[in-house]
Each structure stands twice: as C-alpha cells, then as structure tokens.
Specification:
Distance between the termini: 56 Å
Mean pLDDT: 96
Oligomer: single chain
CATH architecture of the largest domain: Alpha-Beta Barrel
CATH superfamily of the largest domain: Metal-dependent hydrolases
Protein name: 8-oxoguanine deaminase
Number of domains: 2
Number of strands: 17
Number of helices: 15
Enzyme class: hydrolase
GO molecular function: 8-oxoguanine deaminase activity
Largest sheet: 9 strands, mixed
Keywords: Hydrolase
Helix content: 25-40%
Low-confidence stretches: none
Domain Amidohydrolase-related: 56-421
CATH topology of the largest domain: TIM Barrel
CATH class of the largest domain: Alpha Beta
Radius of gyration: 21 Å
Amino acid sequence: MSLLLKNISQAITFNDKDEILNKVDILINDNEIVSIGKNITLDSSTKVIDCSNLVALPGFVNTHHHLYQTLFRGIQEVQEKPLFPWLIGLYEFWKHITPDAIYYGALVGFSELLRTGCTTTMDHHYVFPENKPATLIDEQMRAASEIGIRFHATRGSMSLGKSDGGLPPDCVVQKPDVILEDSERLINKYHDKNKFAMQRVALAPCSPFSVSKELMVQARDLARKKGIMLHTHLAETKDEENFCIEKYGRRPVELMEDLGWIGPDVWFAHVIHLNEREMKVLKGSGVAHCPSSNMKLNSGICPTTELLKAGVKISIAVDGSASNDGSNMWEEVRRAYLLNHLKYGTNGLNAYEILRVATRGGAEVLGRDDIGILAEGKAADIVLFDLNDVAYAGCHGPLVGLVTCGNTSLVKMTIVNGKIVVKDGILLSMNTDNIKTEAHKIATDIVRYERSCK
C-alpha cells in the first residue's frame, strides 16, 4: 500500500543535515519512507492525505516504562513518598498481578503513548509473582501486536528478596536459573534483528537493590551472546547510592563498571546522582531521562546537558504510570524541556534539541538507526501535529510551539510502520472505551483484594 502525506507545512527530519523542510510531501510504500520532496508523482492506487498546515516529526521513542503500573495510579497509601517507601508499599499490590492485568495494563499504556505521538516504546517488566504464569511478557507482546505499536520488551528480573538483604518481598523474586531460562525463551521466540522490526527483546535486571551481582553478570553474558541490549535502573536516588556503598563498597556507576555493564549495548533509567568522572565513564552508553517520575518522587534532576557533552546518549521516557500517573509522551517532552531549563537556565537545551532527544535520541539509545528520522529508507513512523488551535496563536515558531504551547497532548495523526493508528486523537486499532472498562475493573479488584487482606 502507498500513502502520500501531501503538502506538509513543516517536516522536522532530524536527519544528518538537521534539515527542516517546508511545504513538502512524504511518500510511504508499505512500511518505508521512499521519497521526500515537492510535487511527488503518484499512481492511482496511492492514498493521499492533505497535510496542509500540519507539522510532521518522526514518532517519539519512549525508552523506559512499567506498563503494568497503569493499573496502580493514585493509590493513597503511597502518595507523597520517596522511591524506597513508595516501592515497599506498592509491592504489596503488585504481588497480585495476573496475565489479564499485564495485558490490559499494556493496552492502557500503549493507547496513551500512541495518542500522544509515541510510535516506539520499551517496557521494563520485572515483577513475576510466585504461583502466577511465567508468560507475562508474552501478554505484552500480544497487546503490542494487536494495537500496532513498535515494541521493545525487556525481560526484567528480581532475585534479591528481603530475606537476602534486598528491597522486594520474597514472593515477587525468582531464582536466577528460572530468570535466565525464560530470558532465553523470550529472545528466541520474539527478538527480531531485522530492519523495521516491530518486536525486540532486551534483558533488564531491575536494580542494584533487587538483584544479585551474579545475576547481573549472567544477564550480561547471555545478552552479549545473543546480540541484544541490556537495561537497568541506575543512580536514581541517594537511598540507592547508600545501599550500593554499604552492600558493595561501590557507588552505583562504579558497580556497573565492575560488572562490565558499560557500553553502547547498555542503557540506564534515571541516572541522577553521579559525579564528573562517572559521566565520562558512561560515554557511549544510553540514559532514559524520566522528568515527571523524578519530580514526583523527589529523586532529583538528571544532568542531561552535561551527559550529552560527555558523549552519553540521552532519550526521554515516561517511566511507570504509578510514579508519573500517565503515559503522555508529548507532555513528557515539555517537562523535559522545562526541567532542563530549571537546572541549566539559558544554557539549557533548545526546543529542537529536546525534540531530537525525544525522537532520534530515543532510537539511538535503543540501538536503532531505522527509526527516529524522517528520511528515505527509514521506517514510516510519522506523527502529524496540528498547531492551529487558539492556544498556539501568537507563537512564531512551530518548534517552540510543539514544546511549550497547547492545551492538549492528543496528536492529529500517528503512523506506525506505515499504518495510521491514531487519527484526530482517536485510536483506530482498538476501542479505548472497552480497554478502559476492562482495565479499571481488573485494577479495582486487585486493589480491593489487597486492602481486604490487611
């Protein structure tokens, strides 16, 4: 199928020349951008969409999420708490998750992401309660395929329970051999190394306070044997830093150095508390910057500008909905911009740089060069924005308008792999009312059950 996006007002490409093209057409054939230019010739079978007065970007790439947390938003018991007490309180609810909870939680998060301009997302799932099926990530893969989002699943894990000095309760941790066996199963079943892959797999032990050093090394070896990427939380809070120093005699980044967890095949979530030497150590690795989560949990501010200058790959992520309360990617871009300026003032990243981080930057963090760019030969992952609302009146620059203006985060159109998935803010691939109803019922049942047990 061919699709022509006709007369786009402005296309922000993030290509190697940093081109911003005016009054241009984009021709898509199946799942690939085949031509960008003016007055493109087409045949009679090509579907034409008039994009006059619309702005086009490559789709946002979300590099850190916990999709199941969409079912655990606004739980009163954990509000106004920092990370460690917040986690301890939520583990009591999370230990009841089921395959249906994972499936519908994923659909909720995917819906929010797609409607706010995200075309590729990852997820970090690490909660596998005892006596529950081990195929929870399979449910995420099913949801991603049905809804039509490009998806990088990570096989998360926790092996260091409370009885062994870790943070999580023992009922949500697994033995290393179980973790590694399922990791290899998922890689063999789902990981697609091909260009334009819709599903990939990475390995993601949860954090230094919930997995053993031995598992970190075993996951590293398996990932590098299979040629896939590695991910974990790192340097998110001072509590984590103190835990690592007391247990291992190392700061979090130093621990990653010792374990061989540094390099272009590794990306970390948060990365807030680190020194100048550690920034240099992370050169070539990736970071998922999660502004809303970091603000809500009072974790701190990621030194994004300094990390970029040190050669670290930076991306933007929504993080789990229980610490963000939403999966709104467009809003996360706005907050990343504002938080960066709060920290760096007039030396902060400009609107173009923030949008590049959210698109091509995210692709680079995930190890991809086929998405995140509007160019011939790249994936047809395109988002169209309508800046004609009164909320943009008086704004003289579309780039700044995209980042700072507007009263909505619902995009005009989201195209993933050449298919229109969202139009006028409405998800086309599935019914969001049905998703909402079923997801909320499952969430209510889990929360009510846990509260009744107390």
